[in-house]
């Protein structure tokens, strides 16, 4: 059986009328109908790309490079198309029909590439943006060993740094001891001393640069004595695990 030409199926997917021969063949050939379905879905996907999918235009040089690669014309022509939805570009290409059928797919491919690149650029922008104050993790701190002391902890961004904020409202003053905030691995086998928490205050600690906060999700508040021992006293009053 002689199957439909892929280029003809592409044009049908783009909305062109199938000729008599293709119509008859499509009526009886599951393989070609399935191929047409795929192409139709591709066209629908490309056409559905709207302004919302293109939050940031890629640099002009990107389109210029794509245009050069695909022989689509001068970057000057292309600069118009980068500012509109790729679907519009596809429609413009479609007007040119058969003599440039290869260009239709080149344009669709390029439009898809631009869409992906725009997404990458937007994602990179979001990841690199110092969104100060954004809370990235938080925890409720529950009483340990009947201390009756509960609180909360958050990790937030401060530019490129991360800040741990710890609040245990009813922390009683101690005459011969103080409170220390720790961050620990899930099994608490490794603990990092973060800083001193004074009763009546909200502790705000800039985490050490380079510390992977997610590897130390347990926030612990301990009672420490003025004994020169830098290790954890093993007496905790509240503890919780940071989660998104
Ligand atoms: Zn067929």
Structural class: alpha+beta
How many β strands by DSSP?
8
User: Which term fits the overall shape?
Assistant: elongated
Averaged pLDDT: 82
Distance between the termini: 58 Å
Question: How many DSSP H or I helices?
Answer: 7
Structure ligands = zinc ion
Q: SSE order, as H and E?
A: HHHHHHHEEEEEEEE
Features of this protein?
2 domains; 8 strands; alpha+beta; eight-stranded antiparallel β-sheet; Immunoglobulin-like; elongated; 244 residues; 7 helices; single chain; binds zinc ion
Quick description:
The protein has 244 residues and is an alpha+beta fold.
Chart the SSEs and their pairings.
Elements: H1 6-13, H2 20-28, H3 30-48, H4 60-70, H5 75-82, H6 86-96, H7 101-128, E1 135-143, E2 151-158, E3 161-167, E4 177-184, E5 191-197, E6 203-206, E7 218-225, E8 236-241
Antiparallel strand pairs: 1-2, 1-8, 2-3, 3-6, 4-5, 4-7, 7-8
Helix pairs in contact: 1-3, 4-5, 4-7, 6-7
Bound molecules: zinc ion.
What do these coordinates show?
The protein is α+β, with helices and mostly antiparallel strands. It folds into two domains: 6-128, no CATH class; 135-241, Immunoglobulin-like, CATH 2.60.40. It is 39% helix and 23% strand. It has seven helices and eight strands. The chain has helices at residues 6-13, 20-28, 30-48, 60-70, 75-82, 86-96, 101-128, and strands at 135-143, 151-158, 161-167, 177-184, 191-197, 203-206, 218-225, 236-241. The chain has an eight-stranded antiparallel beta sheet with strand order 5-4-7-8-1-2-3-6, with no helix packed on it. A hairpin with a 7-residue loop joins strand 1 and strand 2 (151-158). The longest helix is centred in the middle third of the chain and has 28 residues, at 101-128. It starts with 5 loop residues before the first helix and ends with a strand. Mean pLDDT is 82; it is low at 78-85. The structure holds zinc ion. The site of zinc ion has 7 residues, from helix 3.
């Amino acid at each position: 059986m002689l199957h439909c030409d892929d280029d003809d199926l592409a044009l049908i997917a783009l909305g062109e009328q199938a000729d008599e021969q293709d119509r008859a063949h499509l009526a009886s050939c599951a393989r070609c109908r399935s191929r047409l379905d795929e192409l139709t879905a591709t066209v629908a996907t490309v056409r559905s790309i709207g302004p919302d999918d293109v939050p940031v235009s890629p640099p002009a040089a990107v389109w210029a490079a794509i245009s050069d690669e695909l022989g689509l014309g001068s970057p000057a022509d292309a600069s118009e198309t980068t500012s509109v939805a790729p679907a519009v570009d596809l429609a413009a290409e479609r007007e040119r029909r058969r003599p440039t059928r290869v260009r239709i797919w080149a344009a669709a491919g390029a439009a898809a590439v631009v869409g992906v690149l725009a997404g990458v650029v937007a994602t990179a922008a979001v990841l690199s943006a110092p969104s100060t104050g954004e809370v990235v993790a938080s925890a409720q701190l529950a009483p340990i060993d009947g201390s009756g002391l509960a609180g909360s902890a958050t990790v937030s961004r401060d530019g490129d740094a991360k800040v741990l904020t710890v609040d245990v409202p009813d922390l009683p003053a101690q005459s011969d001891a103080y409170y220390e905030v720790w961050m620990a691995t899930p099994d608490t086998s490794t603990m990092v001393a973060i800083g001193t928490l004074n009763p009546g205050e909200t502790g705000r600690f800039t985490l050490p640069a380079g510390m992977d906060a997610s590897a130390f999700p347990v926030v612990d508040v301990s009672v420490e004595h003025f004994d020169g021992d830098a290790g954890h006293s093993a007496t905790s009053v509240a503890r919780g695990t940071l989660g998104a």
